[in-house]
Write a structure and sequence with these properties.
This protein has helices spanning 10-17, 33-36, 40-64, 68-77, 82-94, 128-140, 144-150, 169-172, 174-190, 194-206, 212-222, 251-259, 279-285, 292-297, 329-332, 364-367, 372-382, 393-406, 422-436, 438-444, 449-462, 474-488, 503-523, 526-536, 541-553, 564-571; strands spanning 22-26, 98-100, 106-108, 155-160, 163-168, 230-237, 269-277, 317-328, 341-344, 358-363, 492-495, 498-501, 558-562. It is an alpha+beta fold. Strands 6-7-8-10-9 form a 5-stranded mixed sheet. A two-stranded parallel ribbon has the order 1-13. The chain is globular and about 65 Å long.
Length: 573
């Protein structure tokens, strides 16, 4: 059993775990009417789904950092030690040793344990240069299948003498995935919805055998679910892997890979979502579905590519508004923020090649505003008083709906050739897609004129950050890029320290930026993507001015989720 040295002092830990600096998002409680209203079979199924989600969290901790489980055990042995107990609060919140806070500062809970570009999916001592060199040597020696296993999104890479080897996740974590499969099968025996049960059994099968096609069948079924009482998702997204994306910067290596038909896809990190589908919220969200073919038709350069939403075919996209019981692993880690919604499977997933669609799931408990007084103080500090009437927190949810659906618009390819800029540009696309179509959706009747103004003003006001982000923070980098782009073209002005949104300029400017993004995605040119991001990722004096005001009214540094119903359900197994 290994001992570690604490990296944060007692004073720093007390500050970061104080309620003024640590925000708490509360999942459903044991007495929640959403839970109490379920049929008994679904209540019983939830126990097993929650257990499966927490097994998945254990797996993802190992993908995130080689030392997470050892450090967790160390903290548990030290229970009663104040420094250990406070560190455990942050560890549980960010679900790992290393993270980043809301000020874009790196948080390291254990001294000497650095965060590496390859996280826990590559050897800690593997440099970018050595990585590229080993791949080149292996390809030249004809070890093509071995290289394919290294560069798939579902493998852990280990040293194999002077070479590397890729081990499928299912083989690497066989026992835990098998336990997960057991729980899903138990849930399928009591859950009241036959479609949902079919999905659970397909997903359980995929957790027992290292076959990507089994995941594809499960994903395809999951993405077709629309009227189910419960939600269970294994999220697989590759924002955390900064090592695989470096390959596109090596032209000679890329040519070798292309010659052998190998695409370097960043590694997936895994999250678990368990929830109860909110019927009223889902009905409101699905209103946009009938407009998606029209939006697809109006995307920039729409005749140059295939997209997930087709103007002339039925829309393969389901949507659900979900009351959350538990969010675990990648989807539940609070690192600078926590996700409001997800559109999955992503474009690199096999299910989209076998006729599968996509599914948008929205997180009700995460989007709820708990402190209206703090919100008003923020508006008083940064937004023109005359435009307060157009700020509405619900409008942020409407924008999020547009954002998630925009992920399904544009080129139907994963754009791996854009390397470390791929995710930044994709998130940028989703934001601009949401804004670019506000006027069209108003014309079509989705929004009224008042709602149009609320979406535009709320989005621009919320686009300002408390600090300049790191380039690795795709969601935040694109926010700065948009802010700079809008400022240069007059979408807003800042007078006497207050933002004034020039409402009628916003949508045309969003369309302009969206066109630039789509052109980059179509061409897939790394150098052009790099220039686009570099030109727009500029932290201006006005951004810093507003950031200082935001820091004055919002001292939050970290966040966590509280899952009392999930905790109670785990005790019942």
């Amino acid at each position: 059993m290994r001992d570690f040295e604490f990296n944060l002092t007692i004073d720093e830990l007390e500050k970061r775990t104080d309620k003024e600096y640590l925000i708490t998002k509360k999942m459903l409680e044991p007495d929640a009417p959403e839970y109490l209203g379920l049929e008994q079979g679904d209540k019983d199924a939830l126990k097993h789904l929650v257990k499966a989600a927490y097994i998945l969290e254990k797996i993802n901790m190992q993908l995130d950092c080689h030392h997470n489980l050892e450090f967790k055990a160390f903290l548990e042995r030290q229970k009663g030690n104040k420094q250990a107990d406070l560190t455990k609060i942050l560890f549980d919140a960010q679900k790992g040793i290393n993270a980043i806070d809301t000020m874009s500062q790196k948080i390291n809970l254990a001294k000497g344990i650095k965060e590496f570009p390859g996280k826990g999916v590559y050897p800690e001592d593997l440099s970018k240069e050595e990585f590229h060199g080993i791949l080149t040597k292996m390809i030249n020696e004809g070890k093509i299948n071995e290289v394919k296993k290294i560069l798939t999104q579902r493998s852990v890479v280990e040293r194999n003498g002077e070479e590397l080897k890729g081990i499928d996740y299912i083989d690497k974590f066989k026992d835990d995935f098998s336990k997960m499969a057991d729980e899903l099968e138990k849930a399928a025996k009591t859950s009241t919805n036959s479609d949902f049960n079919e999905y659970l059994n397909l997903q359980a099968k995929a957790l027992r055998t290292p076959d990507p096609m089994l995941d594809a069948y499960a994903d395809k079924k999951w993405a077709s679910l629309q009227d189910t009482p419960l939600e269970f998702t294994i999220t697989r997204e590759n924002y955390e892997d900064e090592m695989t994306g470096t390959i596109v910067e090596n032209e000679s290596l890329m040519k070798l890979l292309e010659k052998h038909g190998i695409t370097p896809i960043p590694k997936d990190f895994l999250g678990g979502r368990v929830g109860i589908v909110n019927k009223k919220g889902t009905e409101a969200i699905t209103e946009i579905k009938k407009y998606l073919p029209t939006l697809a038709k109006n995307m920039p350069y729409a005749d140059e590519y295939e997209q997930n939403i087709s103007p002339d075919k039925s829309t393969k996209q389901t949507m659900a508004d979900v009351d959350l019981v538990a969010v675990t692993g990648d989807v539940g880690s609070y690192r600078g923020g926590i996700t409001l919604a997800e559109n999955l499977p992503n474009d690199d997933k096999l299910s989209l090649t076998i006729g599968g669609g996509r599914r948008n799931v929205y997180h009700r408990q995460i989007r709820f505003i708990s402190d209206k007084e703090k919100l008003q103080k923020r508006l008083d500090e940064i937004l023109d008083k005359e435009q307060h009437k157009y700020y509405l927190d619900e409008a942020d949810h409407w924008f999020t709906i547009g954002h998630e659906n925009a992920h399904s618009l544009g080129p139907k390819k994963a754009c791996e050739s854009l390397g470390k800029y791929r995710n930044i540009i994709e998130e940028n696309k989703a934001d601009m897609g949401a804004l670019a179509f506000v006027d069209l959706l108003t014309e079509l009747g989705m929004y009224n004129e008042e709602q149009r103004k609320q979406i535009i003003v709320t989005t621009i006001a919320d686009n300002f950050l408390k600090s300049k982000p790191e380039l690795s923070q795709a969601h935040r980098v694109r926010t700065v890029m948009q802010n700079n782009f809008f400022s240069q073209r007059g979408a807003y002005t800042i007078t006497d320290g207050k933002i004034h949104v020039n409402i009628d300029k916003v949508v045309p400017i969003a369309k302009e930026m969206l066109s630039q993004i789509i052109r980059i995605q179509i061409e897939g040119d790394f150098a052009k993507a790099e220039k686009y991001v570099t030109d727009n990722f500029v932290w201006t004096d006005n951004m810093e001015l507003i950031a200082q005001k935001l820091r004055k009214v919002n001292k939050t540094l970290n966040g966590r989720v509280e899952s009392k119903l999930a905790d109670e359900l785990l005790k019942q197994i």
